[in-house]
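Lab notebook, design round three. We kept the backbone fixed and only want residue identities now. Task for the bench partner: fill in a sequence for the structure below.
Input structure tokens:
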């Protein structure tokens, strides 16, 4: 089964689809690739568990390019005691310009940057668009910002999957030796607890060692590791 990714297709101005099958070999044996070419699909994505050796082999055999290692972390939330030096609140529309300016360029670990067929300027616009839509509740449900003395030091976009589970969309803090990243994530956790959220997920890339250290430091556990592949037609 293959799914057309409507938002990606609209943003990049070419058709992007994702293979959802659990048996990649059967997909290729059925000649569906030729059908995708006839439908003018330009990019096919495939996500595979790192331990799924059969599908990993089939992806490489059929010229898929490995572009990303996707690491999912999980944590059962508990209240943090972090004092009152910092303030967290929902971002407003007026915050969008400063968030775009200070943080959009920091997401340079993703598969879009790894795959050199993507225009880097277009990718920067992609993350600016993500930030804006998440503040407006059009992509992730909402965005939280961390402030000190009215200055925005970090942000985190959130999607609440249900009444007790949430996942990070984008997260970033300004560089600082005081560990703003840890402060930000603890503030976010406390905010979610106040909303009844008990289970929290975060996703990062295998090459993003800084994010991995942040989650390890704050007692997140690796829940799932997947490989991301691209096939350009």
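Proposed sequence:
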């Amino acid at each position: 089964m293959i799914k057309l990714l409507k938002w990606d297709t609209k943003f990049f101005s070419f058709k992007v689809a994702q293979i959802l099958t659990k048996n990649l070999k059967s997909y290729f044996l059925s000649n569906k690739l030729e059908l995708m070419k006839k439908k003018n699909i330009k990019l096919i994505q495939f996500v595979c568990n790192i331990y799924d050796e059969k599908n990993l082999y089939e992806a490489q055999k059929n010229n898929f390019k490995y572009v990303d290692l996707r690491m999912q972390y999980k944590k059962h939330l508990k209240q943090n005691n972090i004092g009152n030096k910092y303030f967290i609140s929902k971002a407003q529309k007026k915050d969008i310009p400063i968030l775009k300016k200070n943080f959009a360029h920091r997401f340079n670990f993703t598969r879009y940057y790894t795959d050199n067929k993507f225009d880097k300027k277009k990718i920067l616009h992609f993350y600016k668009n993500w930030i804006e839509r998440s503040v407006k509740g059009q992509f992730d449900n909402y965005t939280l910002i961390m402030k000190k003395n009215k200055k925005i030091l970090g942000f985190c976009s959130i999607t609440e999957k249900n009444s007790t589970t949430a996942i990070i969309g984008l997260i970033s803090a300004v560089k600082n030796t005081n560990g703003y990243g840890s402060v930000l994530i603890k503030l976010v956790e406390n905010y979610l607890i106040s909303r009844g959220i008990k289970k929290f997920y975060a996703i990062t890339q295998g090459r993003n060692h800084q994010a991995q250290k942040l989650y390890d430091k704050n007692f997140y556990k690796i829940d799932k590791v997947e490989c991301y592949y691209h096939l350009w037609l």
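Keep this in mind before ordering anything: Residues 2-63 form one domain.
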